[in-house]
Amino acid sequence: MKVLIVGSGGREHAIAWAVSQSAKADKIYCAPGNAGIEEYAECVNIGAMEFDKLVAFAKEKEIDLTIIGMDDPLVGGVVDAFEAEGLRVFGPRKNAAIIEGSKAFSKDLMKKYNIPTAGYENFDSDEKALAYLETAKFPIVLKADGLALGKGVLICNTLEEAKEGVKTIMEDKKFGDAGNRMVIEEFMTGREVSVLAFCDGKTIKCMTSAQDHKRAKDGDQGLNTGGMGTFSPSPFYTKEVEEFCEKYVYQPTMDAMAAEGRPFVGILFTGLMLTEDGPKVLEYNARFGDPEAQVVLPRMKNDIIDVMEACIDGRLDEIDLQFEDNAAVCVVLASDGYPVSYEKGYVINGLEEFKKHDGYYCFHAGTKRTDKGIVTNGGRVLGVTAKGTNLKEARKNAYAATEWVTFENKYMRHDIGKAIDDVEA
C-alpha cells in the first residue's frame, strides 16, 4: 500500500513510525513532514490546509490510504474533500470534527445526552460573559470556543483575573477567531487522564490510557502549552473508572454523534477529570493527542493500517485491540521561552544515539533539515520517549535519553510522571 500522512509534528512522526511497522505499507509519504519523519517517509512540500493540492497528489501517486494527523484540516473538511474524489481517508468528516472544533458544540452535546461534564454556559459577547462572572464561583475556567493549539484555556482564581481573561479571549483576540465565542465552566479538581480511541461511527475501541502535562514549568506552573510530556498507562485509570467511562462516556458519545447525523469515524480523544463525583469529560479532540500518541502507539501490538481500515469500513468490532504490558514516558525537549517567544535554527546533536537502543524513540515535533544538519524549527522540538517494565523504569529511561540530545536553548520539565511516585507502579 501507498500511505499519505498529513501533518508535521511529533504526533505525525509517531504515526509514520507505526505505519512503517505495518507489513502492508510499501511506500509512505508525509505532507509536509519534518526532518525526523524523513526516516520513514518521503516528505512532500504541501501544507496541511492545501486540500486541493493534497487531493491532487493522492490521485497522482495512487495513494491507497491517507491519514490526517492534525486538527485544523479535519475541522476544515479535508476528509470531505478526499471522499468527494473517491479516496480512502482516515479521520472524521467536517460535521463530526466539530466535536473538537467548537467547545460550545461539544458541551451542548454532553448536556443533551447526559454525558458527565462540568457545569457551563456559552457566550457570544463579552458583555454577557462579564455579567455572568459577577455571580460566578471561583476558581473558574474560560475556554475559547475554537481551535487554539491547545492553549485557549484560562484558569482564573479571581473575578479580576476572569475579567482580564474575557478581554484576552474576546476583545484582544489572543486566540484569533477561536475567541469569537467562549465557554465559561466550573473548575474541576482531580487527576487528568487522556484516553484515545478508534471509532467507526458505531463501535468505539479505546487504547491504553495516558496523562499529559500541559503547563510549561515544573510543578504544573506557567502557561498552557501543546504538551510538555506524557506517560502511559495512567495508574489512576482503574478498571472501575474504565467501566464507568465505557458505559456513560465513550459509547454514549458515539451514539450521540450518530443520533445528530454526525457519525464519528477516526480517532476520538477524550480528556477526563477524575473528580470526587466520578469521571467527567474535560474536552474532546478529533485526532491523536500530541504527545499522547508518542507513548500510546509504541505500546500498540496491532498493525495500525488494519485498525484504520476497519474503522473506514465500519467493521471495527472485528478488531481485538491489544497493547503491551509495559509502560512508556515521553519528555518534550522545547526551545527555551516556549510557548511565548523562542529562537529557531540551532543545530541538534545526538539524534543517532536512539538507533543504538531498543525501546527508545525520538519523535520530531519542530525540526528542519538544513546544510548545517537538523536544526530546531519550533517551540516543541523533540519528544524523547522510552519504554520500561513499569512507569518508574520508563521515566528513568526517558530522562536518561534526554541527555543524549543537545541543542542551544534546550528546555524541558523535570517532573514528567512525578505523580506516579504516589502509587505502586
From TrEMBL:
Pfam families (alphabetical): GARS_A (PF01071), GARS_C (PF02843), GARS_N (PF02844)
Record-annotated membrane-spanning stretches: none
InterPro entries in alphabetical order: ATP-grasp, ATP_grasp_subdomain_1, PreATP-grasp_dom_sf, PRibGlycinamid_synth_ATP-grasp, PRibGlycinamide_synth, PRibGlycinamide_synth_C-dom, PRibGlycinamide_synth_C_sf, PRibGlycinamide_synth_CS
Cofactor: Mg(2+); Mn(2+)
Alphabetical keyword list: ATP-binding, Ligase, Manganese, Metal-binding, Nucleotide-binding, Purine biosynthesis
The protein's Enzyme Commission number: 6.3.4.13
Domain ATP-grasp span(s) in chain numbering: 107-313
Gene Ontology BP term (one): 'de novo' IMP biosynthetic process
HAMAP family: GARS
Reaction it catalyzes: 5-phospho-beta-D-ribosylamine + glycine + ATP = N(1)-(5-phospho-beta-D-ribosyl)glycinamide + ADP + phosphate + H(+)
One of the record's GO molecular function terms: ATP binding
The protein's annotated pathway: Purine metabolism; IMP biosynthesis via de novo pathway; N(1)-(5-phospho-D-ribosyl)glycinamide from 5-phospho-alpha-D-ribose 1-diphosphate: step 2/2
Stated name of the protein: Phosphoribosylamine--glycine ligase
Family recorded in the similarity comment: Belongs to the GARS family.
